[in-house]
Amino acid sequence: MATELNDAQRQQLLQNLVIPPRPEILDRLQALRQDSASPLQELSELISSDPALSIAMLKAANSPVLGQGRKIQSIGQAVNLLGVINVINLASGLVLRSRLTQETPPVLEVFWDKAMQLTTVSGLLSERLAQVPDQCQSFALFHACGIAILLMRQPGYARTLQLMELADDDRILKVQQQLHGTDHAVVGYLVAKVWNMPENFARAVLLQYDPQALATGPDALLDHDARMMVAVTRAAQHAWRTSLPGDEDPGWPLRRSAVLAYLGLDQVEFEDWCDHLHQQMAGA
């Protein structure tokens, strides 16, 4: 279970990690998100001004779930077909990927590909729910960004990642702490703080595995928006992790009741949605 960090602990951890500064293009993307007019041309021009981002955006937009068989050939076409918010979320995630991991060993490529798929599923689930914060899709990508940094900085972390994939949710952070003295929730929280992400967003990254993360009331660890980020991401993770025959999600039984209750979904309804998603992914 992640714990709150005081300033001294935060500074000590930052001394041992290299976290790049928040990129300017992320500020410009967030400004467009806040613009009620959401100018399509301005968004297209901003993304097109970064060749690497443009290439990555077209690759992501043509993924099976997002593209759905359509051939998206330009950034303008992607904005028109996917919508401004979806494109901003995708672009923000791709910026995160490029700035946090300049190195591209195979294990990092696999991690980021999985992260982008999870982000897409999170967006699809958010469309079915009421009163979902805009940042849910961004959180789905950002919540595990600490893994990318630890893969680059901690010897043997790739093996630890394999152990994490087999662990229940209440063991994921403990495994990392035992082997590396830190965990990806703590590192992700530090990235969120350095990048001036909203406080509730940063706290959701830190406390996402806490058994009381979705608890309400005067002593709640997180506010409603942060709880929704955690719940949507965990439900999307289950849907994505079980998309192929034989794939398992060991931690889901422990979290299922609390997550679905917070989202206002019953188990049958959610499993039906997962089945539909799996068919869509298989047929795309």
UniProtKB/TrEMBL annotation:
InterPro entries: HDOD, RNase_Y/CdgJ. Residues 19-211 form the HDOD domain. It holds the Pfam family HDOD. This is HDOD domain-containing protein. It comes from Chromobacterium paludis.
